[in-house]
UniProtKB/TrEMBL annotation:
Keywords: Aminoacyl-tRNA synthetase, ATP-binding, Ligase, Nucleotide-binding, Protein biosynthesis, Signal. It comes from Aristolochia fimbriata. NCBIfam families: hisS. GO terms for cellular component: cytoplasm. This is histidine--tRNA ligase. Residues 47-85 are annotated as: Disordered.
Amino acid sequence: MKMAAACCALRFQPRLGLSFLPALSLSNQISVCRLCLPQCSQKIHSPAATSQEKSSGRSGGLASPPTIDRQTAIDVNPPRGTRDFPPEDMRLRNWLFQNFREVSRLFAFEEVDFPILESEALYTRKAGEEITEQLYGFEDKGGRRVALRPELTPSLARLVIQKGQSLPHPIKWFAVGQCWRYERTTRGRRREHYQWNMDIIGVFDVTAEAELISSVVTLFKRLGLTESDVGFKVSSRKVLQAVLQRYSIPEELFGEVCVIIDKMEKIPMEEVEKKLVALGISVEAINGLLQVLALKSLPDLEEALGSAEDAVADLKQLFSLAEQYGYSQWIQFDASIVRGLSYYTGVVFEGFDREGKLRAICGGGRYDHLLSMFGGTDSPACGFGFGDAVIVELLKDKGLLPDLSPEVDDIVFPIDQQLQGSASMIASRLREKGRSVDLVLEQKRLKWIFKHAERIKASRLILVGEAEWQKGMVRVKNLSTREEQDVKVDELS
Ligand SMILES: *[C@@H]1O[C@H](CO)[C@@H](O)[C@H](O)[C@H]1NC(C)=O
């Protein structure tokens, strides 16, 4: 106790140099109260513990050399709006991402990634999009404006421009990455999420969109969802473009008009109209727009715009492809879908839950001019983003979340402490064969071992005991059948 007090006292004596401390803690003679552990508990090692540690060759036990001044206690919660992923959450995330990656593989896309931190200029667009208004941007120590990426597509466009013509087209890339936003009004909404993106660069035809939607359908099916759980609303921004042309609305307003119209479901209609009027759109044009946006069937669209319109031709081709892919039951035309990103130019789509309880599950579309916005040469492009949050809510609602447990094949347990080395040898052998092995690292009771085995759903228990070991054997217990037998170490597999 005396030593502990002395040690803590030292740490709180600002005038005593820190150089005193390592000498104290490394000494076998003087027990440091455990690290002056966070709470500086007044516990010290008992003399017995100290001698045991000495005999096992450890000096100092848990006490590591103190290095820096004691800090004020930290907040153990992750920063506001962010998440930790303890094992059970990480298992779920990995499972979801494995599905993203597997579907991408089925469609022969290659994985890419980009820095989470990008130059802010990559996202400055004047369209009033939510995504850029909530940009998590700041100045770095070099005075550069940077931002945590709010989405992946601009980075992808940047990389495509950088690689230039050396890339064989079409480019089919996918990425799974964390995206950030900084909301001014935080109401329990998170500031980060992960997104799976698939993009095709270099294809003019809606065959590309059809392929992208097919990949999301494939994912949904893998996750156990059917067309009665989820669907896609599909439209084309060319529908809006046709209407705007009809009313001679300048093309440069197109992106902004789309972003305003996308807010129709979130803000009152008068607000939407006010914003459109502020852009200089006539009331007559607004009424024309609203009429077309209410359309829910392709024949009606064709009647409204005429069959010569690109929008009509694109959508008809897309729906006909969907039939041949076999997912026409999953998609429906809905002219009100425009999506909130200003850079979309053609077909847009969004995945939704049919009960209408959740936000969009995913969204995507064609963005043929994004590359030139960044000073590159235009290339036809389309892609989608699929977040990690809504899908998990949906799967939870539907009871479709898998029961994931740690994946351990074997537990290796030395019954006698002196067989620890032999147990590690057994563990190494099994690991070389590719088995996942949990080697028990300290003395435990068999009762604990069985409970532990159940918790981690191990399939075998390998007991290394003196009597068997003398005969070059170990006891192997099959944890599902409870059968056990002695197996020669050389025959263990
Ligand atoms: C346990 O026994 C069952 C039934 O014989 C067998 O199917 C299973 O593969 C065994 N498990 C291990 C890990 O050997």
